[in-house]
Write a structure and sequence with these properties.
The protein is of the alpha/beta class. The protein is built from 14 helices and 24 strands. Strands 22-23-1-24 form a 4-stranded mixed beta sheet. It has a 4-stranded mixed beta sheet with strand order 2-15-17-16. The structure holds uridine-diphosphate-2(N-acetylglucosaminyl) butyric acid.
Length: 417
Amino acid sequence: MDKLLITGGRPLEGEVRVSGAKNAALPIMCAALLTAKPLVLTNVPSLADVSTAASLLGQMGASVERGDDGRMTLQAARIASRLAPYDLVKTMRASVLVLGPLLARFGEAQVSLPGGCAIGARPVDQHIKGLQAMGATITIERGYMNARVERLRGARIVLDLVTVTGTENLMMAATLAEGTTVLENAAREPEVVDLANCLIAMGARIEGVGSDVIRVEGVRSLGEASYHIMPDRIETGTFLAAAAAAGGRIRLLGVLPETLDATLAKLRESGAAIVTGKDRIDIEMAERPAAVSVRTAPYPGFATDMQAQSMALATVANGTAMITETIFENRMMHALEMQRLGADITIQGTSAVVRGVEKLQGAKVMATDLRASAGLVVAGLVARGETLVDRIYHLDRGYEALEKKLGALGARIRRVK
Ligand code: EPU
């Protein structure tokens, strides 16, 4: 199994280009199921999760062609199977995003329940509740959600909590429903907006995206479209956190700075000098970072997907920071691994009190999920000596060529067997 070997303690310098967003690419790929016509995507990141989504669509009978430079053409002209099997859903929860599109276009879908997850329970009750409100009959049998409907009809749905993929599933389903659907307490994440813009390019009628009330007027069918996936704001934030922790000066290209307001505010608070352009961000950290507390929240709040990286920064900051996780109940596993590097962290429920230390020391650590891995890599870049990060298959799910990009910034990092 691959591991990452990092020799830390060196500032970062140089520039890198950020990839297309994983969490926009996955729902947008599933949107291809809404039409028999082709969907041509560009800026699709090269990630394990994207390959999983491609296999899932391929198994159903969709054609998936991948070209150079992140180009992908999807066409679900004939769909032989409306099944998302357990084997794929358990490796990637986002597979549940086929439920809304399949049900809306074919009137039936069989999707495995995702089950538990390393970072929390993560139920899909809101997806189910919303589709039922739109007229679907959903039964749970042998671990599968069996959904059926003649034709979905528009409904007013108030989500109990803010859910990103829940909003995406219901928004996709509503595009082909009869009448108008109003989603209240909808997620405002930029990836939801990106999906909506792709659906609009396919002919959907959607208003209010980016706010917490989304209105979808159903249409009979959707057509072909070309769409460019937005840049990955979490990859961007991970590089920014790495530069803030390790010090130095880097430039990130191909980014969307306005999707990173909360992260940029926290990094500035920690002492980083940041200049943003239309599609670039320059960050310089000349001194030891100041301790900055964060509390995760739905967008536009501080992203839970940046929590582990912000904890890594806090481990070497001057002062004490409180890191509070409000989205997932078990997303602090990296704290224990960071302690192996010499970090001073006390967990209190879903908060971590992080007292910054002058130095971390390299050690062997184990990644437990995607963003935990990213946090450990950031910590490894700061730690003196060698850090070996195990189980980096988690990283490959969501970061394209991370070690190459960090290497281009002067980090001593390589993949070992
Ligand atoms: N929730 C429910 N019921 C539901 C749906 C969600 O109780 O029906 C709860 C969850 O258990 C959680 C909270 O609502 O406590 C928010 O979960 P959400 O549904 O928003 O998460 P998600 O859609 O499953 C997406 C991202 C995650 C990211 C979260 C939060 C994708 C493919 N995944 O997950 O990304 O952490 O939103 O922003 O978009 C990652 O990239 O590493 C990752 C985990």
